[in-house]
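Methods — Computational structure assignment.
A single polypeptide chain was analysed. Its primary sequence is given first, followed by the predicted tertiary structure written as structure tokens.
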Amino acid sequence: MKLSRLLGLPAAICALLLATLAQLPAQAQGVVDAMRGPTPIAAETTPPILYPTENKDVRRERNYTGQPPTIPHKIDGTYMYQINKDHNGCLSCHARTKAEEMRAIAISPTHYVDRDGHQLADVSPRRFFCTQCHVPQADAKPLVTNTFVDVDQLLKRKPDGKSVGKN
């Protein structure tokens, strides 16, 4: 008799667990994620429109030291800008040997240094895939509010939190 009770307890726990798991998708229907708007997580959404890439060839201001510059021109839809293990289209204009001729900004000298600090003749393999750090821009509304304040502005603030020189 005690053996049957002992065997019945794990079966009851498993049944309770399965019943709880079966209810999870129904409960998830009402869960909402701020990035998705009012659409519940379990529901399909209409994807947002893809904004056209800016093509202004204007250098953008950087927000902090060491921030990779953004790409100020389109890079999609042409073989010229493809990057794979055998080819990097960016180097056809931005390599230090071609930049002056192409009137492009040369790649930073830091891209010609390997992880051991040795100077290389070609771009370091760890810097070969430009779009790991550099991205084109689109004139799109931000998905979340940006409250970023750069270090120069932080240093100019008074201890009361107000900026110096502003009312």
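Note: The chain is about 25% helix and 0% strand.
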